[in-house]
Design brief:
Elements (H helix, E strand, L loop, with lengths): L2 H4 L18 H5 L1 E2 L8 E2 L2 E4 L3 E4 L1 E4 L6 E9 L22 E3 L13 H12 L9 E6 L12 E7 L23 E6 L4 H5 L11 H16 L5 E11 L1 H11 L10 E5 L13 H11 L7 H10 L2 H19 L2 H5 L20 H6 L8 E6 L3 H14 L7 H6 L1 H8 L8 H10 L8 H26 L7 E6 L41 H20 L20 E4 L4 E3 L8 H5 L11 H23 L1
Parallel strand pairs: 4-7, 9-10, 9-11, 11-12, 12-13, 13-14, 14-15
Antiparallel strand pairs: 1-2, 3-4, 5-6, 6-8, 8-10, 15-16
Helix pairs in contact: 7-9, 12-16, 16-19
């Protein structure tokens, strides 16, 4: 299988860490040319008792020009390589001298692009420990030595997404979130793909290592964030897509103690989504191992072989497995979580997850904390792109009217993880999302398909997640519906679909973190300020603030109210209107084209029916 084809895989939900500068007077008191653009930056020295000293950089916030102090590439764990591969992380040791915290640490190994795989192989061949990646970045508006210990700042701890297979801390900079100078931001890296999540359900290969990395980073935060002027008793855990699923898993894990975080923000992801859990980890691990030329039937011997396997070969084997399941078997959800998602552990010295999240949340056996959670308007466009690639184009059926009429909706549901053996579920979706004259015409079906993909993969499970919480703690529900000129649709790759992304999966991040491929227009900056204000006010006070004209009320029923975030945000009553918003408002979505009250009522009824359907499906 060629590398280019191998890399066409669904991504849901894409200097050494211990190298010291040295204790010279120049490093401690002078400046260093350490910024990525080559310019000189001050080298603020931060001393952390029991660990060592850090040399960071300074930057300014996006709009208020507040000075920010950035400390990157801080090791929180020992290198998870050699005998530590597949094992729970161990805390990093103190260092001598001054640690260079001026640049990003290396990304955890991942098979994201052909170039990254090629570079990874070159680095391995040069003898580099590419698995030494467990570092974190801390951003604070307070200069070293200037912290008032009686006025510590709220902490926001961000878990990046990327299907637990790709991504890093590099893309999440502080310039927006720290613009008011009253937040400390921490962004950890964690092991990805098979290195972080492969499981044979044995002590040697238990699974959930990436989540254990996150737990250790939270412990590090509790111990050391005060030296950055952060308050360890006011930590808000937030994450998007797979990171959102990780946040909710932290709420249910026995390894996470009550003091580690006090609030959560869940963006476009949940541990209750079908894609979040690998329900057949041993079978998946065996198939991946076979592709890596590890074929022993004994699981302990198989684990030993995987321990010895070259990092590049292991990632290639995993990518081949995902492509095989996705392309050959047409199973996105069931195929995409093999070897790179959570498992219900049956072995290992530390069990991160011991029961099905559906059971834990239904029975209330999780950490009850204030929650803010929501989705983007057109979550489904990203997933429809994969369906277009791996069903329509692969089988050359884009214009096959007969196929589109009789099989396509059922195949779309199967791709999304719903097996409809009787056809009854397909009939419900077809009846509620398409007019009779639309079925068979792909272009006409696009709005309904985007809604179906959004509901099946994200919107229904996120609503189910916050419904477990709203009667126990203040819970704020939202839908991000603002369409700007930037988008994450395609994740930086050129795409040639007969549809756009709309307000796509991950587009909300454009208003929380600076985008590397473009700047916001002035009118979009105002939206970003609103979004940042919502997130940070919740982190600081537990009450997201919109403006003096709109009060965002917590949920008072299972369906709302919720905040629809737009150029002019407003509170609405029935969240399930977002379940088929594309077919009611059109596509790519014009927020000025409103449906009538009668149509809104019908939309709500459709959403209610689908919500009941999903509850039944997930209880089977």
């Amino acid at each position: 299988m060629d590398v280019g084809r191998r890399l066409l895989v669904l991504v849901v939900m894409s200097c050494s860490a211990t190298a010291a500068i040295g204790g010279s007077e120049e490093a401690i008191g002078g400046t260093r040319g350490s910024s990525e653009d080559g310019g000189d930056q001050q080298c603020p020295i931060l001393n952390i008792p029991e660990l060592g000293s850090l040399c960071g950089t300074t930057d300014t916030s996006a709009w208020s020009n507040i000075t920010l102090y950035n400390y990157q590439n801080i090791p929180y764990a020992l290198p998870p390589s050699g005998h530590r591969r597949f094992k729970p992380p161990e805390p990093a040791h103190p260092w001598n001298g001054v640690l260079d915290a001026t640049k990003f640490g290396k990304k955890c190994p991942q098979a994201n692009t052909e170039k990254e795989l090629k570079d990874l192989r070159t680095r391995i061949n040069s003898g580099e420990d590419v698995e030494d990646c467990l570092t974190l970045n801390v951003y604070t508006p307070v200069a070293p030595g200037k912290c008032d210990k009686h006025n510590l700042l709220s902490v926001m701890f961000y878990i990046h997404g990327g299907s637990f297979r790709v991504g890093s801390a590099h893309d999440f900079r502080p310039n927006y979130l720290l613009d008011e100078g009253d937040i400390v931001l921490i962004v950890p890296q964690y092991r990805l793909g098979p290195l972080g999540f492969l499981s044979l359900q044995t002590d040697e290969l238990p699974g959930n290592m990436g989540f254990m990395d996150m737990v250790l980073a939270l412990k590090w935060t509790q111990k050391y964030i005060k030296y950055f002027c952060g308050d360890s008793s006011r930590v808000t855990l937030f994450g998007q897509s797979a990171g959102g699923a990780a946040v909710t898993l932290m709420m249910a894990s026995p390894l996470v103690t009550p003091d580690m975080f006090q609030r959560v923000i869940v963006q476009s992801g949940s541990s209750l989504c079908d894609w979040a859990l690998d329900r057949d980890p041993v079978e998946h691990a065996k198939r991946i191992a076979e592709l890596a030329n590890c074929t022993d039937e004994n699981r302990d011997e198989l684990a030993l072989c995987l321990h010895r396997t070259n990092t590049w070969e292991l990632l290639v084997a995993h990518s081949d497995f995902l492509t095989e399941v996705l392309v050959t078997e047409g199973q996105a959800v069931k195929g995409n979580n093999g070897g790179n998602h959570a498992v219900i552990q049956q072995a290992g010295p530390n069990s991160f997850l011991i029961e099905d999240p559906h059971v834990l949340f239904k029975e209330g056996r999780y950490r009850h904390v204030p929650m803010m959670a929501g989705i983007t308007k057109h979550e489904g466009s990203f997933f429809l792109g994969n369906i277009y690639d791996f069903i329509l184009v692969r089988d050359n059926v884009t214009n096959d009217t007969e196929y589109l009429k009789k099989e396509f909706i059922k195949d779309t549901l199967q791709f999304s993880g719903i097996d409809d053996t009787t056809g009854a579920i397909t009939d419900i979706f077809q009846d509620k999302y398409f007019k009779d004259d639309e079925v068979g015409n792909f272009t006409a079906m696009i709005p309904g398909l985007i809604d179906i993909c959004g509901v099946t993969l994200l919107k229904a499970c996120l609503l189910q997640q916050i419904r477990h919480n709203w009667q126990l703690q203040p819970s704020y529900l939202y839908s991000f519906n603002y369409k700007g000129h930037l988008t994450k649709f395609g994740y930086g790759e050129e795409v040639n679909y007969p549809f756009g992304g709309g307000v796509a999966h991950s587009d909300d991040l454009l208003y929380l973190f600076p985008h590397t491929k473009g700047e916001l227009y002035p009118h979009e900056v105002e939206v970003a300020k609103t979004v940042v204000g919502l997130w940070t006010s919740f982190a600081k006070d537990g009450q997201p603030y919109v403006n003096d004209d709109v009060e965002w009320l917590p949920m008072s029923s299972a369906n709302g109210p919720y905040l629809r975030i737009e150029k002019t945000s407003r509170l609405k009553d029935h969240f399930m209107e977002e379940f088929n918003i594309t077919i009611t408002e059109g596509y790519p979505g014009n927020s000025e084209n409103r449906t009538s009250d009668g149509q809104n009522l019908q939309t709500y009824k459709v959403g209610l029916l689908l919500s009941i359907l999903f509850t039944c499906l997930r209880s089977l």
